[in-house]
């Protein structure tokens, strides 16, 4: 086999980038710039964001539910009543939470599967942000329905488009970079001498973490992934031959970039594998057979070796699907919520064990919520939804957002009422840009850089942040 062919085959077989399609998003992943930065640029503290992307459109109005005698009947009616054809959760089964900024006579409960999330909220370690969605500028129901040409996000109610817009940090038709990646581009100089990229994905290639200079390093919940086919009796010889090829000089840019990318992947694998080998044993028990918990447990291990990796800032990504509940929602939703809740509870406990709970913020995103009314066995695509943020830095036990047309932070759930369309598609009162910028700002993104990463942010005034992070 020719040297170039062998090199190309080796690159294509590499799973260190999670998939072959991820290769081209990682071509510029280099650490040389980090080494050139002064150590004085790095802060003395560590901070990390952990993004849990609930793919499919989470029906979050069954996650956080008004339980008072005035609003619960409205919720139940709009949800087409209780099962088997309605989507309303029985009021007596809700887990009560103490909302510090609830209005007079208002009370709330969580879905009965969300025991750990309720505990985090009631202990002041978590907050909810109601009615968040993609927006170009503040939008009311009359604007959406009756103002010709009023700017609204393109391709509303489309999974791929809305997932992309949450990831991009702007309501645009398409984009090559995400706000997590662009934030890493601005902040990776705060990791001088880092031996691994700032962004780490537990879900392969993703738009959220794709930057211009910083690309995500993808690994699995079981640890870093190395090349396929380099084990067994000939594994050592094959690896040595590959290493020799990687040291060669190649005349064309594509081959040089291939070689550099494979070398980086091998180096990152070795670095992460060695670092994790020295990780302290965690006593926190993560729930078994839980894919979200497995990913978060690996993130906790990575955080525990942050000093070895010389990381002061990190961004993690965990995707979890199954939320496109057009069918069998009442059967499937309890398991989905229980999986997320148990994983989030264990992860927060692990950050406490590592004494980094004030330095790690975990947050959910989902492309949209779902219609309040039932389609007979589930719900359909909608717009604004509810997001959950947890961590020691969160000013917890409260709801954060902007008043809806009906007057409260939590919207009126009346079908075709002041805050939603005919099937209960909520008009967002908080832009996904605001929510995301609040998180990025806490991580260290400056006000001026925030306006660049989130180009529509100025439409929400001089202080667009939501205040849930101290």
From TrEMBL:
A Pfam family assignment: DUF1501
Q: Where is the signal peptide?
A: 1-35
Is Signal among this UniProt entry's keywords? Answer: yes
> Which sequence ranges form a coiled-coil region, renumbered to this chain?
none
Which keywords appear in this protein's UniProt record, sorted alphabetically? Signal
Q: Record's InterPro entries?
A: DUF1501
Segments crossing the lipid bilayer: none
Indicate whether Signal appears among the record's keywords.
yes
Per the record, the domain of life is Bacteria
Q: What is this protein called?
A: DUF1501 domain-containing protein
**Source organism (scientific name):** Pseudolysobacter antarcticus
